[in-house]
Specification:
The protein folds into two domains: 97 residues, Aspartate Aminotransferase, domain 1; 225 residues, Aspartate Aminotransferase, domain 2, CATH 3.40.640.10. The chain is 40% helix and 17% strand. The model has no long low-confidence stretch (mean pLDDT 96). Bound molecules: ligand TLP.
Length: 349
């Protein structure tokens, strides 16, 4: 059942979900306090819950995934440092260059295979200020995105995750996971959140993607890192007062919406398989591991395709002139999947 009244099938992102009646009820009932003064009981409960899920000492509730990544970088680097991350990572492509503007860092881009970095390529991309006569910036933080959004919602294996964290330690670098969709990764790769996070210094976890909360991310890590993160959240203007109403949505989403993510994965695969059989589209089925489908259409035809789909009540996003992205989430039903497949069938040029 769709939880909000709409004739549209909105597959632009899993960020479009609306709080369900049950989630709104949990929000309405939340006890709140002034979280900047540290006394919102629901925020404290959420932070303790997420720290526990990821096996870390502390957690911090922040307004967005972008701010969570920005705070993680600011708290673990110095101006003049370099962040090492995948070529198409969200931190590089979609965060407005925040690593440079807010943290004074440059960035080293690592090639990825379907968005997934190989530990050897990560190591080859680390530049150190020491011993270079000061020529190089100081590569001091490695950021891994799991799932990889631009990789197509792909997941890291345990070996790759641990391998990259080991490279980080050996090279005196901090390690961070942009886990905007880490629960999707956990379900798809059968790795617990704790196991994925074990070797990493910080993890950013989004509540407002597949989990369906309206707002919020949580940054987790050690007490020392989170102490700094707390100060940077203040300076970035991310301290929120009676944020318990939002934290309650986060708690609800963690208690109710994690196990169901596999349904989103199945629906994405159903769409992907159907599209791959059609003449005008190409989908790399190996990359369809979670809730995303990147669809290659005819050269330069993405905008026109989106427009034709829109007229049939199906919304998706243009990624580049020949690629569109479809994302399944908690409002997408089996009927929507069939409608989407039929619409794409008839939208072929
Ligand atoms: N991703 C959005 C867009 O910004 C592209 C989407 O629709 O997928 N990390 C990753 C891997 C993300 O995909 C996103 C959002 C974020 C961080 C940022 O989260 P917010 O939007 O809460 O700042």
């Amino acid at each position: 059942m769709r939880h909000y009244p709409s004739e549209l099938v909105d597959l632009r992102s899993d960020t479009v979900t609306q709080p369900t009646p049950e989630m709104r009820e949990a929000m309405a009932k939340a006890s709140v306090g002034d979280d900047v003064l540290g006394d919102d009981p629901t925020v404290i409960e959420l932070q303790e819950m997420v720290a526990d899920i990821f096996g870390k000492e502390e957690a911090l509730f922040v307004p967005s995934g972008t701010m969570s990544n920005a705070i993680a970088i600011r708290a673990q680097t110095e101006p003049g440092d370099e962040v090492i991350t995948e070529r198409y990572s969200h931190i590089y492509v979609y965060e407005g260059g925040g690593y440079a503007a807010l943290s004074g860092c440059s960035i080293a881009l690592v090639p990825g295979e379907g968005g997934i970095m190989d530990p050897a390529d990560v190591e080859a991309s680390i530049r150190k200020g020491d011993g270079s006569l000061g020529h190089y910036p100081n590569g001091s933080m490695i950021c891994v995105e799991n799932t990889s959004n631009r990789g197509g919602g792909t997941c890291y294996s345990k070996e790759n995750l641990d391998g990259i964290a080991k490279i980080a330690r050996e090279n005196n670098c901090r390690s961070h996971i942009d886990g905007a969709r880490i629960f999707n990764a956990s379900i798809s790769s059968s790795l617990s959140p704790k196991r994925m996070a074990r070797e990493y210094d910080s993890i950013s976890v989004c509540l407002s993607k597949g989990l369906g909360a309206p707002v919020g991310s949580v940054l987790v890590g050690s007490t020392e890192t989170l102490y700094k993160a707390h100060r940077w959240r203040k300076m970035f203007g991310g301290g929120m007062r009676q944020a318990g109403v939002l934290a309650a949505a986060g708690i609800y989403s963690l208690e109710n919406n994690v196990h169901r993510l596999s349904e989103d994965h199945d629906r994405a695969m159903e769409i992907a398989t159907a599209l791959d059989r059609m003449d005008s589209y190409e989908v790399d089925l190996e990359q369809v591991q979670t809730n995303m489908v990147y669809v290659k259409c005819d050269k330069g035809g993405a905008e026109a395709l989106i427009h034709r789909l829109d007229k049939m009540g199906i919304q998706a996003l243009t990624i580049d002139s020949s690629t569109i992205r479809i994302v399944t989430h908690l409002h997408i039903t089996d009927d929507d999947v069939q409608r989407t497949i039929s619409a794409l069938e008839s939208a072929q040029p």
